[in-house]
Design brief:
The structure holds two protein chains of two kinds. Chain A is mainly beta. Chain A is built from seven helices and 41 strands. Chain A has a single domain, classed as Maltoporin, Chain A, CATH 2.40.170.20. Chain A has a 24-stranded antiparallel sheet that branches. In chain A, a hairpin with a 2-residue loop joins strand 23 and strand 24. Chain B is elongated, with a radius of gyration of 22 Å. Chain B has two domains: 135 residues, no CATH class; 161 residues, Beta Barrel (Porin). Chain B is built from two helices and 25 strands. The chains are: A mainly beta, B mainly beta. Chains A and B meet through helix 5, strand 24, strand 25 and helix 6 of A and strand 19 and strand 21 of B.
């Protein structure tokens, strides 16, 4: 089975992204195509065969391509993978991913992420730099049957280099014209044929591109560093162990949001994001004659602090801090038939997780916020009794504890009848989430009585809020999948049709507590509706049905490969924010929407010669609300915001060997395109389609390579994000033209 | 409302006495207080007096349960009367997320002489309230007496619904022979239904607004025939510049008991707005008239009509709001109406 996986993935790795032999490496070197000989990756464990043989729309990016495109995090594959969009905005806590129109800005992710088998449960930790990535797989469409919760739009599997495959040092350094720099070093050692250890470390820093006009400081400065230790041990031919431990530390400014009317970034309070993460994943595999059993155990720890000038204006409205500490444990056990051959193949699994989150999230109201959001609002409602707040700054505090746990059983069967394969799978998933909250605030105000035009003292109002409570929800869901695959003769590929169910977990949106507390404050002053906390912050799971037909095609000589997929997604109970019953303040999180999304994807790779590769991938999505009324407006029929209608990636790579073994020069020209994007449910603000041109020249000889690269060479102006805050519109601009140099040196 | 249902069950399960008789049957007793409205069928005069009913539940198995009902506090003609009914089959239904225990076909003799006529009695919780309204956390009018104790407005028979437990209610309907008709009502009731308001803006434009979100609470002092009315989530227009008032309290209303029902009314009432600083008299909005009438024989449904004049500066605007509420505090299942 290992050889089958190796061969199949080698084929996929060679062709999926037009990969040619990695610049700066010889075929016997750390080429991604050989990675699986000694790897146990979660996708290899859960897939019956190579991804291009599966009824899946999947893109695999291998090391040479990742290096060519300077990809060190999953944001780097945005637009390269069709219908996959992960905009770069805010800070590294914002990992909003949209696939085929399905995505999430807040709370639960829609796309799962596994790194060296470690499943990342919290999307706040999705954006981090990794050294020596050899393989990124992006499976589009619901993966809920095998991967469970929060894979409604897909799953990303990242594999890093194995010490059993490569031994020696790998050093990389790069610097850009925008004074962004990265350096990484990895030591790979094999103690014996069966035991290997690698230690890698990386550092990156950025001066910052965007300037806060309020104080002249650069906003998006960043420093991060991390390390990883990977240990692999082939104990016996049947037993294998792999452990990967990693940590990262990040300090970042961020949030360069420009105020739309002025086009400038200017705010007076500090914004930053700091994060410390640690993860460990232990994979144990037993390969018997009849069955193989794989256990993947993981531990993740996140400790972060996000502090924002929440109004993003020079005025003193309010600031938000969110400090959290989360620990998660997961266990995934997969039992499968030892060799994927014969008429009937199967796998079955058990998955369990526990996640514990402690969070403090105070919102501090300041002078302008108090006068305009509280005093003015209250005095307009009750003009005969105007109030004045006692202080010009006070916090609304909220502390949360969220323990969540779940278990699941899953199974998949594949029946092969000649050229036909019938796949059926089912997952039973149970999850329970609890929220313990404590909201507290001590402040006060003075009330006056207007008498004959004069203000006369009436009374003092104490605001003493000390609310505690516990909310709990649990869900039991069945997630089926069926597929039919027809394998074309002469190994020319396959055609498939698939029906699958997607699932995004329900839970509690703690960000809504600021709305709850504001309403509570108003209630104490006699105005506003009272909130039921469970109704406001709790939301049900989101579910979808995904209908898909597709094909993986290749010519017999392997020069042309194409992947095609057409899909239709019907999404129910969409998790959206709405206003309750005609009010204009106080959002609640509800399952208010029904959406539908249809479209297609096409990826073509053409290699007319060994030295020349052309690659193109295009994705189109038409995603609209079938039903969505937010309590004030009816957006039924409108396009879903934030999800681009089109993604486009075009690339040409030309390898030029120099005479007399003087090395190889690789020329790379590429273009990424995105859009049209609607920024709001009303579809009144849009980002038209934009294209970013890139190019690179790499000289490599032996273990050394130097790459000159450029991104957004036409300095296209575009925006990556839009939002409303207190009726004010903000945008974040995308990065402009950038050039850089990357030096790599591998030595043994 | 899950809390209501669970509390009612728990309340019923927390019986004052419980004993086994040795024949695989368990007897349980519980007493609930209410107010009886007793109408003299000959004269049409009605009086309201405190009442209490004791329910005896005998359980032989899950499907074999009987209930008997008794009272020693049926007060009319200036004295207390009593009865205990024969046991009848016991039914329990869930209606609008509230458990209602309906006992019909009860038979017995008042003072061992006069037969009960068409006796039907129900123990019930509140039906489901709007999601943003929690009875246990709603504003409750209170006052401080000379001793500095905080009390609820006088005359309240039942504890106002505060804290975590919601007291169940008793709904009765029977005749004492042909002489008297007895109904019951709660003196602290939350009504939900529909409010339709017509209003005028500052510019003189007319508008109308309909909502199901306003909850009305009526607290009665039966002895002194006074009542207070609280309007929660009070909002009379669709205008965004008029946010909902968390509560408006109208105190000092007059109570009149009429044949088969009652009326609560007041004129030129200045509503009070509860806030952290105390009660704010909202004399910019005076309820020139407000009248509550019971609209069915079970005394569970009411209509409330009101006219409010407003003040913009020194200018008085008559009939700024004219509103009508129709709703009920408890639903009567078909089982009880047959």
């Amino acid at each position: 089975m290992a050889l089958l996986i190796t061969g199949a993935l080698r084929s996929a790795a060679d062709t999926a992204a037009g990969a040619s032999p990695s610049a700066g490496a010889t075929p016997s070197d750390a080429d991604a195509s050989y990675i699986t000989l000694d790897e146990v990756s979660v996708s290899a464990v859960k897939q019956m065969s190579a991804l291009r043989r599966e009824p899946e729309a999947a893109t695999i990016l291998t090391q040479p391509e990742l290096e060519r495109l300077d990809v060190v995090s999953i944001k780097g594959i945005s637009d390269v993978v069709p219908n996959f969009f992960m905009p770069d905005y805010g800070s590294r806590i914002t990992s909003s991913i949209y696939v085929r129109g399905i995505g999430a800005r807040m709370d639960q992710p829609s796309v799962g992420l596994n790194v060296d088998n470690v499943p990342f449960l919290n999307k706040d930790a999705y954006d981090f730099d990794l050294a020596d990535i050899v393989n990124v797989e992006m499976l589009r469409g619901p993966q809920s049957t095998l991967y469970g919760r929060n894979t409604m739009a897909g799953v990303i599997n990242i594999t890093t280099l194995s010490p059993l495959r490569y031994q020696g040092w790998r050093i990389q350094a790069d610097l850009s014209t925008r004074l962004r720099g990265k350096v990484s070093a990895g030591w790979y050692h094999k103690f014996s044929d069966n035991t290997g250890l690698s230690l890698t470390a990386n550092y990156s820093g950025a001066r910052g591109e965007f300037i806060n006009r309020y104080n002249g400081k650069r906003l998006d400065k960043e420093q991060s560093y991390g390390a990883r230790a990977k240990f692999q041990w082939r104990i016996t031919p049947e037993w294998m162990l792999q452990n990967t431990a990693a940590f990262s530390n990040l300090r970042q400014g961020g949030y360069p949001y420009e105020y739309l009317p002025t086009g400038t970034i200017a705010y007076n309070d500090t914004c930053f994001y700091r994060r410390l993460t640690f993860s460990d994943g232990l994979t144990a595999r037993y390969s018997g004659d009849r069955v193989s059993v794989t256990s993947i155990t993981s531990l993740q720890h996140i400790h972060d602090n996000m502090t924002l000038d929440q109004d993003f204006l020079p005025a003193d409205y309010f600031t938000l801090t969110q400090r959290k500490h989360e620990i998660a444990l997961t266990e995934d056990i997969v039992v499968r038939k030892a060799a994927a051959e014969g008429v009937y193949n199967w796998l079955a699994g058990f998955f369990g997780f526990y996640k514990h989150l402690d969070m403090e999230a105070p919102v501090t109201f300041k002078d302008t916020g108090i006068s305009q959001l509280i005093e003015q609002h209250r005095n307009e409602a009750i003009p005969s009794y105007p109030i004045e707040w006692d202080t010009r700054s006070f916090p609304l505090n909220s502390d949360f504890t969220l323990p969540t746990w779940g278990v699941a059983l899953y199974h998949e069967s594949v029946v092969t009848l000649g050229a036909w394969e019938l796949t059926a799978g089912l997952r039973a998933d149970y999850e329970k989430s609890t929220l313990d909250y404590h909201s507290f605030c001590n402040t006060g105000y003075t009330t006056y009585r207007v008498n004959g035009g004069e203000k006369v003292f009436f009374g003092k109002g104490d605001v003493n809020i000390d609310d505690r409570g516990e909310l709990s929800r649990d869900y039991l869901t069945l997630l089926p999948k069926i597929a039919v695959t027809y394998n074309l003769p002469a190994n020319n590929g396959n055609i498939y049709a698939k029906l699958s169910r997607g699932y995004k977990a329900g839970g509690f949106n703690t960000q809504m507590f600021s709305d709850v507390l504001q309403q509570r404050l108003m209630n104490l002053m006699g105005i506003g509706s009272r909130y039921d906390v469970d109704d406001v912050v709790g939301y049900k799971p989101e579910k979808s049905w995904n209908y898909e037909v597709g094909a993986h095609l290749n010519t017999t000589d392997g020069k042309i490969e194409a992947d095609i997929a057409l899909f239709y997604i019907d999404c129910r109970d969409q998790q959206l924010t709405t206003f309750p019953d005609g009010t204009t303040t106080g959002r609640i999180m509800t399952n208010a929407g029904e959406t539908r999304s249809f479209g297609g994807e096409l990826t073509i790779s053409y290699r007319p010669t060994e030295r020349f590769t052309l690659t193109g991938s295009y994705g189109h999505t038409n995603a609209r609300f079938r039903r969505f009324n937010d309590g004030i407006n009816d957006y039924s029929g409108n396009y879903l915001p934030y999800a681009p209608a089109n993604t486009l990636f075009l690339q040409g790579v030309w390898m030029i060997p120099l005479r007399k073994d003087r090395g190889v020069v690789a020329l790379d020209v590429n273009m990424r395109g995105t859009g049209k994007i609607y920024w709001n449910e009303a579809n009144t603000v849009t980002q038209p389609f934009y294209a970013l041109a890139g190019a690179g020249v790499t000289y490599s000889k032996g273990d050394f390579s130097v790459q000159l690269w450029g991104k957004n060479l036409t300095d296209t102006r575009y925006h990556t994000f839009y939002f409303l805050s207190m009726g004010n519109e903000f945008l974040q601009r995308g990065k402009g033209i950038e050039g850089g140099v990357t030096v790599r040196y591998n030595f043994r | 409302m899950k809390k209501t249902a669970i509390t009612l069950m728990a309340g019923c399960a927390l019986l004052l006495t419980s004993c086994g008789t040795g024949d695989n049957e368990v007897k349980q007793n519980i007493t609930y207080t209410t107010v009886n409205l007793i109408t003299d069928n000959a004269t049409g005069e009605a009086v309201a007096t405190p009442g209490a009913y004791t329910f005896q539940l005998v359980t032989r198995d899950l499907y074999d349960r009987t209930m008997a009902v008794g009272t020693s506090k049926l007060t009319y003609n200036n004295r207390d009367h009593s009865f205990t009914t024969d046991p009848v089959e016991f039914k329990e239904i869930i209606n609008d997320n509230a458990i209602q225990q309906c006992i019909t076909g009860l038979e017995g003799l008042v003072d061992n002489t006069t037969p009960l006529k068409d006796c039907r009695i129900m123990i019930t919780g509140y039906p489901k309230m709007p999601g943003d309204f929690n009875i246990t956390k709603a504003f409750t009018p209170s006052y401080t007496n000379d001793k500095g104790q905080q009390l609820y407005i006088p005359g309240v028979i039942l504890h106002p619904n505060i804290g975590t437990n919601i007291y169940p209610m008793v709904v009765v309907s029977y005749g004492v022979g042909d002489a008297y008709t007895v109904r019951s009502f709660t003196t602290d009731a939350f009504y939900k239904g529909n409010t339709a308001t017509s209003y005028r803006t500052q510019g003189g434009e007319a508008g109308s607004y309909t909502t199901d979100n306003i909850i009305y609470r009526v607290i009665m002092d039966v002895e002194n025939k006074k009542a207070g009315l609280v309007m929660y989530n009070a909002k009379f227009t669709s205008l965004p510049q008029e946010p909902a008032k968390t509560a408006l309290y109208l105190a000092g209303l007059d109570v009149k008991f009429v044949s088969g029902g009652y009326e609560i009314s007041g004129t030129d009432i200045v509503p009070q707005l509860p806030g952290s600083e105390g009660m704010l008299p909202m004399d910019d909005y005076t309820f020139n008239s407000i009248t509550l009438r019971t609209t069915d024989t079970w005394l569970n449904s009411v209509s409330i009509d009101y006219k409010v004049s407003g003040k913009m500066g020194e200018t008085v605007i008559p009939e700024l709001y004219t509103g009508r509420f129709t709703g009920s505090y408890v639903s009567i299942p078909d089982t009880m109406k047959q």
